[in-house]
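testing teh design pipeline on a random one, pls ignore if ur not involved
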């Protein structure tokens, strides 16, 4: 009760309103506002949205959620909706299209929301993977691409949150790459941070923490730094593996993919790094399966598919151990913990079905059926 009243009072004063002025704008008495702010009473639920609108804050802010918590909550809601859409969609291309539609509906109501804007740009970049497939609506792609550029430009110009600006630059680079606008792509790529200087925050943050707060705190920063480096390295390997699976000799692509898997296994020997290999591990196997089928090597493909399923099961079991231990969960940010909770048996089966569907799209029904026969 006190939290809500205190937040109403703080927001009112920030807006320069008296209790009477606030009351008149939402149709209540000044005495009612006074009771809310003193903790002697609570506004009716029907008053919450009008209060937020007049005070120019979100309803989450009124109830005491920080801006970072609001961002995390909204982003996880979007992620859960992504999963729901994926389960009901007929193909990965259909999934990306419907996720874009969902975000556009959100943007009609919240056109300035930088999280929805960024997520729409990211989903449009995902959609670009399928535009060259036969039967795809090129007009729809042009519409979504133009909207992605519009919303992405808005985020880059007006958002002051580094994460969302960088995610937008990254996704827009892919949108431009698909359109073969390499100059436009590089403008966004060069706006992103680079490891080339070798003078990163991570390179010195653990050391200053050690000197200021001691070894125990330094270890926490070091773990976080290494988790970020693990994710960055895995992304570099995955993108290369995907490209090579299409353009290189299939056997050469497999060699690179196997090396990438070995890198991830080595990183995961430090168990704190394992969750940061999750999606990359799965998708490198998808690239290798693609190369296997290009080479018509069904036996090797079956072996890789078994390794994929075994590896995903290992991830699942490890995440259950982490989630059951308070000491372990403290090692990860809330977003990673939520991702681990979402990594269920059903989730794994859905991702494996997606990989199979992708292979069917890429190689056709005849080759796909041969592969199913070998793995059954």
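output:
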């Amino acid at each position: 009760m006190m939290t809500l009243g205190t937040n109403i009072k703080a927001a009112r004063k920030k807006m320069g309103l008296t209790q009477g002025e606030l009351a008149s704008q939402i149709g209540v008495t000044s005495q009612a506002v006074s009771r809310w702010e003193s903790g002697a009473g609570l506004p009716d639920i029907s008053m919450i949205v009008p209060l937020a609108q007049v005070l120019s804050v979100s309803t989450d802010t009124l109830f005491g959620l920080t801006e970072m918590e609001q961002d995390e909550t909204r982003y996880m809601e979007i992620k859960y909706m992504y999963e729901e859409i994926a389960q009901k969609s007929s193909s990965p291309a259909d999934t990306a299209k419907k996720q874009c539609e969902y975000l556009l509906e959100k943007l009609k109501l919240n056109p300035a929301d930088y999280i929805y804007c960024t997520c729409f740009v990211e989903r449009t970049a995902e959609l670009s993977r399928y535009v060259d497939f036969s039967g795809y609506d090129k007009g729809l792609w042009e519409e979504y691409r133009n909207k992605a550029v519009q919303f992405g430009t808005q985020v880059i110009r007006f958002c002051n949150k580094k994460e969302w600006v960088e995610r937008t630059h990254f996704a827009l680079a892919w949108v431009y790459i698909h359109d073969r606008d390499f100059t436009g792509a590089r403008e966004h790529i060069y706006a992103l941070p680079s490891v080339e200087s070798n003078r990163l925050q991570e390179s010195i943050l653990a050391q200053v923490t050690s000197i200021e707060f001691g070894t125990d705190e330094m270890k926490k920063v070091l773990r976080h730094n290494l988790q970020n480096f693990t994710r960055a390295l895995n992304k570099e390997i995955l993108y290369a593996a995907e490209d090579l699976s299409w353009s290189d000799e299939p056997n050469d692509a497999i060699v690179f993919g196997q090396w990438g898997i070995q890198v991830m296994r080595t990183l995961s020997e430090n168990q704190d790094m394992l969750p940061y290999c999750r999606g990359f591990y799965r998708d490198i196997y998808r690239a290798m399966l693609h190369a296997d089928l290009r080479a018509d090597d069904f036996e090797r493909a079956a072996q890789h598919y078994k390794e994929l399923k075994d590896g995903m099961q290992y991830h699942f079991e490890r995440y259950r151990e982490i989630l059951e231990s308070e000491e372990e969960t403290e090692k990860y940010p809330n977003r990673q913990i939520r991702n681990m909770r979402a990594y269920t048996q059903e989730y794994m089966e859905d991702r494996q079905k997606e990989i199979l569907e992708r292979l069917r799209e890429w190689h056709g029904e005849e080759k796909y059926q041969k592969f199913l026969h070998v793995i059954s």
